[in-house]
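ARCHIVE CARD
SHELF: 3
SLOT: left
DATA:
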Amino acid sequence: MRLKFDTLLEVQDYYGSSDFQVEAMYDELSGGEYIMFRFGYWNELYYEDKFYAIFERLGYKVEKQEIEDDDTGWNYWYNIKNKNI
């Protein structure tokens, strides 16, 4: 999977900050490679549909992930995957 720098700038414009992390991931059990986005300290996004639209028009799908941590509360991250996975 590849993202252009312009896509990252579009995400920054959407989020209103450069306080996000991007990580290339590979998990053979869940269908291969994907890109994980984490915003701030595991923040949940507002207006997620706008974030999803950035990647859907590029042919990707977005999967929201969440887990409750005893120490930090709810943690959220977003996986960007090929639509065929």
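SLOT: right
DATA:
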Amino acid sequence: MTANESAAHASRQIRTLPKILIAAACLLAFGLVFVFRKFRIDSATQRRQDLRNTHDEVIAALTAARDGSETLNCFLINASHVMDARVSP
């Protein structure tokens, strides 16, 4: 290789280096965007699942409270009838 060829080769390498660095930076940026996007999607999915679980727990507690309330009402109605029967001649 002659001195001119060597200088031309070095000059081409210097000109392509910024292109390679820019391409690498773009790939890194796209990779980071996809990683953060996946993290946000996973986080939103987890929050949605937590909300569903909490909703199911609230529905179960509400059902239990209604059942307890109905049982208490039936007991009080029966107790009232028994007391009325004892008081009435």
